[in-house]
Amino acid sequence: MRHGTLDVCMRGRKVMWLFLVALLLWPQLAPARIDETTFAPWREEYRALAVYTPRPTYPYEARARHLQGSGVAILTIDPATGNVSNAVMAVSTGAQILDNAAISAFSQWRFRPGTVSKVRLPITFTLAFGRGSVVMEVRVLKAPRLDHALAPFLGKENVIKASMPVYPANPPWTSKQGRGVYEIHVNQTGMVTEVKILKSSGDPTFDNVTVNTLHQWWLRHGPKIIELPLAFVMTADNCRVWIP
Q: Are residues 156 and 137 in the same domain?
């Protein structure tokens, strides 16, 4: 009887030890749950530039295989539209599935037109105690130097505020092109007081967008009258406004 009781106790202890071992190993054996993606702290002026920033997901397959890693994505932004024209992993996370998840999300990002041209995005996929998380930080690498392009017309270092007109995003204008010439009247304080259409782009919508945008320009020096040519053109991957 005593021997049988001892066997029962030993079996009970063995079951208890197996249960404890399984409990400790469970986070490593089970696919991790994913927490909400978080942004590392980044400067408020950068946050204000981003219009649409869908967050990368931690793929289930990657979590099931316990894949982790840190990498760096570089985004090239079209200043005319604010859309990402190219997204690459300058530094891989070490797992193609994680790289693809990052690029898939970052390619959809949008920024305010005329604000940034290149963005660096460090990203980390981590697993801990059965949880998965994605942490990112946004760093603007280079702002577009629109003042350089405008210098022949406005003078060097004369721009306080000057953004390019935005190509209308809806059909039928996304299938149209045009070139126009506009006359900008600037007063002594550098504010634009009048914009005249010297040569129409051929489309009233293009002209209205241009006139409204140029009215918001602000220069350091005046008074002056500026003649500015602008072109609404379509490329292989986007539509943009530029100085011909």
A: no
Mean pLDDT of 3-12: 55
> Is the distance from CB of 52 to CB of 83 less than 8 angstroms?
no
Are 137 and 112 contained in the same domain? yes
8 Å CB contact between 48 and 146: no
What are the φ/ψ torsions at residue 66 (nearest 5 degrees)? 60, 40
Give the start-end residues of each E strand in the chain. Answer: 33-34, 38-39, 50-52, 69-77, 84-91, 110-111, 118-128, 131-136, 139-142, 159-161, 178-186, 192-199, 218-219, 224-234, 239-242
Q: Kindly state whether residues 138 and 94 are assigned to the same domain.
A: yes
CATH code assigned at 192: 3.30.2420.10
The whole domain housing 122 covers: 33-142
Residue 107: DSSP 8-state: T
pLDDT category of residue 192 using cuts at 50, 70 and 90: very high
Ramachandran sector of residue 141 (left: φ over 0; alpha: ψ -120 to 50; beta: rest): alpha
Q: Which of 67, 122, 55 is nearest to 98 (CA)?
A: 67
Rounded distance between C-alpha atoms, residue 122 and residue 100, angstroms: 14
- Please, what is the average pLDDT of the chain? 77
In the listed set 100, 115, 142, which residue is the last one of a domain according to the structure?
A: 142
Tokens of 16: 């208890």
β partners of residue 227: 183
Domain count, the chain: 2
216 vs 231: CA distance, rounded Å: 19
Does the predicted model carry a pTM greater than 0.85? no
